[in-house]
TrEMBL record:
The protein, known as: IS5 family transposase ISAzo23
GO-annotated molecular function: DNA binding; transposase activity
GO biological process, one term: DNA transposition
Listed InterPro entries: Transposase_11
Organism: Paraburkholderia humisilvae
Amino acid sequence: MFNALRWIQAGCVDIMVNDLRSIMRVAQRRRGQPSAVILDGRTLQSTCESGPRAGYDGYKRKRGSEVHMTLGTLGQLLAVNVRPANEQERAQVGELARQVQKATGPVKVAFADQGYTGEEPAQDVLDEGIELQVIRLPEMKKGFVLLPRRWVVERSFG
């Protein structure tokens, strides 16, 4: 009889996901593992059942949880971190960087939005051997602006 828990505990699922990611990247004429990733967070509105897991995000004026994701440049999910919405995006960067390096190996560059600015997030990522590049909005922004590299993670949230 199939016992999924035993496969998960043995690391078989992680190995299969890693192999599938490598096959998909090689099929698109890329290296087997990504050398660049995209970071982003999104606040999800809470429900009554959320209870203490939910926090209030004053900037977005929502009560809920914040989902932080790291994707490869082809849009493959590499790491995810869920926290109450009242915690800073910047505080999640170090944990995401550790998860990515564990899952993929040597990633060199991480692209992020302006929510990840500052010396502390840059240092947290650098401690894991990754350079953080913040993609900024143009000065004269009107309406929706497609930012380089960032559209991959926005598409995943959509």
